[in-house]
Amino acid sequence: QSALTQPASVSGSPGQSITISCTGTSSDVGGYNYVSWYQQHPGKAPKLMIYEVSNRPSGVSNRFSGSKSGNTASLTISGLQAEDEADYYCSSYTSSSTHVVFGGGTKLTVL
Amino acid sequence: QVQLQESGPGLVKPSQTLSLTCTVSGGSISSGSYYWSWIRQPAGKGLEWIGRIYTSGSTNYNPSLKSRVTISVDTSKNQFSLKLSSVTAADTAVYYCAREDPDTVTYDYWGQGTLVTVSS
């Protein structure tokens, strides 16, 4: 069982917006602004999409945005496109000795 | 542009030691204040942090694997390595090496991943 809880799957139609949640505890998501989101296409390495809750690395589309409330972080993708279909993982710094924890991943299907 | 590439055997027998190397190109492994990490992903499952090393040699390991894991660095070769002992089928996974930015606790560069299967 992963330390951070994500829905197993979400779906949306092209052009729509979707939100993926990532729930942790006050020892990780709720206690620090070190939440990141990664996109992973089949057979590929994860790609950093959001860091420090809501910051986008250079080159990442502004259709991707992040936020946090309490122990839950969220990734929102607006204007869904076919190429957004992938698995998405959240991660957070944790005060436990594991240093970083990941979510179980969410499969995004673009209908 | 920093690039990472994993290498090592794709098949390891149960009870033996899994050994992988990550070669860093496009920059010196010693430059900047980065950690060099190993992360694994069993088929169809999520990501698991294994551990990390700083170029000083300082390491941190996942407590669930700590008794079996050793991560080392060879700055002269711009490489860092993973050894996981006493492997079982549960250690079958895609193993990734990645660069961690400790200021943001993010993995900004990843290797392509290498599948390691534990089987006799």
Question: Concise description?
Answer:
By secondary structure, chain A is mainly β. In chain A, 0% of the residues lie in helices and 43% in strands.
**Quick one: biggest sheet of chain A?**
6 strands, mixed
- What level of helicity do the residues of chain A show? under 10%
Per DSSP, the total helix count of chain A is: 0
Low-confidence stretches of chain B: none
| SS content category of chain B | mainly beta
Q: Write down how many β-strands of chain A occur, each being a DSSP E stretch of 2 or more residues.
A: 9
Helix content of chain B: under 10%
Using only C-alpha atoms, the radius of gyration of chain A works out to: 13 Å
Question: What does this entry look like structurally?
Answer:
The complex is a heterodimer of chains A (111) and B (120). Helices cover 0% and strands 43% of the residues of chain A. Chain A has no helices and 9 strands. By secondary structure, chain B is mainly beta.
